[in-house]
Amino acid sequence: ILYRPDKVITWINKVSEDWFGEIEDIEQNDFFKQLNDSANTGITQVFDKCISNRKLEDTELETTRYQNQVYFYRITAAPIFDQIEGIKRILIMIQDITAEKELQLHLIHTGKMVAMGEMASGVAHEINNPLSIISVCVQEIFEDLGEEQVKENQVKEIRNNLEAIKSEIQR
Questions:
Q1: If pLDDT is split at 50, 70 and 90, which confidence band does 167 have?
Q2: Which of 102, 98, 124, 26 lies closest to 1, judged by CA?
Q3: What's the rounded Cα separation, in Å, for the pair 69 and 103?
Q4: Which of the 8 DSSP states describes residue 90?
Q5: Mind listing the pLDDT tens digit for each residue in 119-149?
Q6: One-letter-per-residue 3-state SS of 126-141
Q7: For residues 100 and 62, is the Cβ–Cβ distance under 8 A?
Q8: Cα distance between residue 42 and residue 111, in whole Å
Q9: Whole-angstrom Cα distance, residue 163 to residue 154?
Q10: Which is more confident, 169 or 107?
Q11: CA angle, corner 65, sides to 112 and 108, nearest 5?
């Protein structure tokens, strides 16, 4: 969208026409007011910053459109200078970066899931080490019980308890 410094639109491309309507249908002085609050604020800020700093400015904004879906846009304002008058026009470029942002969010989520998997693997390893030692000790006790050093009625109870421990460890 091409503006004069007084925020009057002088040209729009086909995509802008699809989004906002034809240039003849846009209420020139109230164009910024036609946008929702976050878009209006974002475009107005980058527009005003571009004029005051006399250089290219950009920002990203999040807004809702169509059935309250969230969209992300990169707004860039570029001054076009005239040798005599200074800033003659401001070119506002609005890029839909929703897919890019969604991909970034997906990559962040994937990274978190990988970290959680690595952490769970480490915890499982730390738990399995002492369980392996307990399992070996239980096996040795089983072997020792075969030597009839304990009363017969105690052997059955000890074997049952050791069997329960072993099955829990191997679970």
A1: confident
A2: 26
A3: 16
A4: E
A5: 999 998 888 877 787 777 777 777 766 655 5
A6: HHHHHHHHHHHHHHHH
A7: no
A8: 30
A9: 14
A10: 107
A11: 10
At 150 the pLDDT is 61
Q: Which pair of structure tokens corresponds to residue 74?
A: 């990169």
CA-CA distance, 79 to 2, in Å (whole number)? 10
C-alpha 71: how far from chain center: 13
How far apart are the C-alpha atoms of 129 and 127, rounded to whole Å? 6
Q: Would you give the DSSP letter of residue 25?
A: T
Q: Give 31-72 pLDDT, tens digit per residue.
A: 555 565 666 777 888 989 999 999 999 999 888 777 788 889
Enclosing H/E stretch for 168: helix 152-170
Sort residue 2 into left (φ over 0), alpha (ψ -120 to 50) or beta: beta
User: Full-prediction pTM beyond 0.90?
Assistant: no
Q: For residues 62 and 72, is the Cβ–Cβ distance under 8 A?
A: yes
**Taking all residues of the chain, what is their mean pLDDT, rounded to a whole number?**
82
Residue 40's contacts (CB-CB under 8 Å, 6 or more residues apart) are 32, 33
